[in-house]
Amino acid sequence: MLLTISTTHRPADDLGYLLHKHPQRVHEFALPYGTAHVFYPEATEDRCTAALLLEIDPLHIARRGFGVADAAPLGAYVNDRPYVASSYLSVALAKVVGSAMGGRSKERPELAGTPIPLIATLEVVPSRDAGVPRRLFEPLGYRVETSRLANDLLDSPGAAEPALSPYVTLRLEGTVTVAELLTHLYVLMPVLDDAKHYFIGDDEVEKLLSRAGTWLSSHPEREFIATRYLKHQRWFADAALARLSEGAPPLEEEVDAPDVEPAVPATPLNQQRIDAIVAALHGVGAHTVIDLGCGEGRLLGALYEDRDFTRIVGMDVSPWSLRAAGRRLHLDNLPERQRDRLQVMQGSLLYRDARLSGFDAGVLSEVIEHIEPDQLPRLERVVFGEAHPNAVIVTTPNRDFNARIPALAADERRHRDHRFEWSRAEFGDWATSVAERFGYSAEVGGIGEADPALGSPTQVAVFRA
Questions:
Q1: Which of the pair, 86 or 343, is modelled with greater confidence?
Q2: Cα–Cα distance between 229 and 226 in angstroms, integer?
Q3: What are the strands, taking DSSP E only, across 288-339?
Q4: What is the end-to-end Cα distance of the chain in Å, rounded?
Q5: Interval 382-439: pLDDT, tens
Q6: Would you call 386 helix, strand, or coil by DSSP?
Q7: Res 74 pLDDT > 60
Q8: Lower Cβ count inside 10 Å, N or C end of the chain?
Q9: Is 407 within 8 Å of 238 (Cβ atoms)?
Q10: What pLDDT digit, counting tens, does each position of 128-138 carry?
Q11: pTM greater than the 0.85 cutoff
């Protein structure tokens, strides 16, 4: 895939200072999925063009399962991913010209903040609707030109006109800073492609807001952009749009995106939950811990960093979540002596499983609300009855606190997959009942900044046998 950026600002070859790449050299960068090359087809005082050529390894795509394997036997190996502008190119931009995207230039600091005439050309862009590039880039001040590519493979013998492909060449022309152009491309290339090659987590909401927060809130297609950028995962898009509508500045930390909650100053709620769970585990003297419903492994990562925990296991019903956890935790690259200390496994909390036994503590963090109410007794028997660890820590949303969340309508839940959300009274009654039936004591509290009348956004129960 090929991106070129040209300028006629004099002296035009100052573009090399802005991109931090010398025009007289060919620059090469190794990436996990291929190689990026930066070079200058022309570099004079009158006109300068920088080119980013990205070579993608098709085997990487096949191994990561990002191809179209269900379309044809060789679909995972033969597809458009190595050729079209996509999230692969966005990641390459951040890697190769990250300083330029941040608006930094040691040699030309004033020029880095000055709008100059720029032309960007993407040779192959996936876009069945030629109007989409205009909808995305014209509100940002660009003149947009597209030309539909012909597709020789679809041509019929004797056809009067060549068959057209679902790809266009895109040319953008505008007077903007280099940083603005690179940021617009970084955000909007995956939107045009309507796909991303990597796992979407709540950190992607922060990435979107940090890269696009200054212009996305006023963009007429902000909902379209947020939805596609976040891979149509509605709860993430809603969280991003809510933050934009409130005019909240992007946080450097991650937000608690899967649950639509207000931004928490200082420390995001998700991190506060992790910190509170780790503290509770220390409080009950746990050294071996099983995270029941571990998701993408955020808590597992925190436990792994703490040497007091000698055995850590994450279990989840979703193979997709476990693969994401494996990537986050770099399980394939763990030193041999650590492989027994940190593991993940697939399983259901609704069925007896001998692998759940023998731990000092079990954790159910933001899990029970995803279980159908009539199935909760089965979870209780499996976790508190059959596995029966010395301690169990449970966190769940506090429904009372929802009144503080402007984005939620009356009786609306924080996540579309929540089967219920309990008030503080309901959670307290449940904790007391479970403790009495399975031989535990229960201490109930809250996590996060508390409202005097409504309590904390998250409620927690620590069960001790």
A1: 343
A2: 5
A3: 288-292, 311-316
A4: 59
A5: 999 999 999 999 999 999 998 888 767 777 888 877 899 999 999 999 999 999 999 9
A6: helix
A7: no
A8: C
A9: yes
A10: 787 899 999 99
A11: no
Q: How far apart are CA 54 and CA 37, in angstroms?
A: 6
Exposure class string for 25-56: b at 16+ Cβ within 10 A, else e: eebeeebebbebebbbeebeeebbbbbbbbeb
**Tokens encoding 8:** 């006629």
SS3 394: strand
Instruction: Please answer whether residues 391 and 463 qualify as being in contact, where contact means their C-beta atoms are separated by less than 8 angstroms.
Output: yes
From residue 108, alpha-carbon distances to 15, 17, 153, 257 in Å are 10, 7, 48, 38
Query: Measured at the alpha carbon of residue 181, what is the angle toward residues 180 and 182, in degrees to the nearest 5?
Result: 95
Cα–Cα distances in angstroms (integers) from residue 384 to residues 74, 389, 433, in the given order: 48, 7, 12
103 Cβ contact list (under 8 Å, min separation 6): 112, 113, 177, 178, 179
Position 334 scores a pLDDT of 85
Q: Is the C-alpha dihedral spanning 434, 438, 442, 445 positive or negative?
A: negative
Asked which of 140-144, 234-238, 316-320, 374-378 is least confident by mean pLDDT, the reply is: 234-238
Tokens of 284: 């009950």
Kind and range of the H or E element at 104? none
DSSP-derived 3-state class of residue 105? coil
In degrees and rounded to multiples of 5, residue 140 shows phi and psi of -90, 5
For residue 277 the two structure tokens come to 């769970």
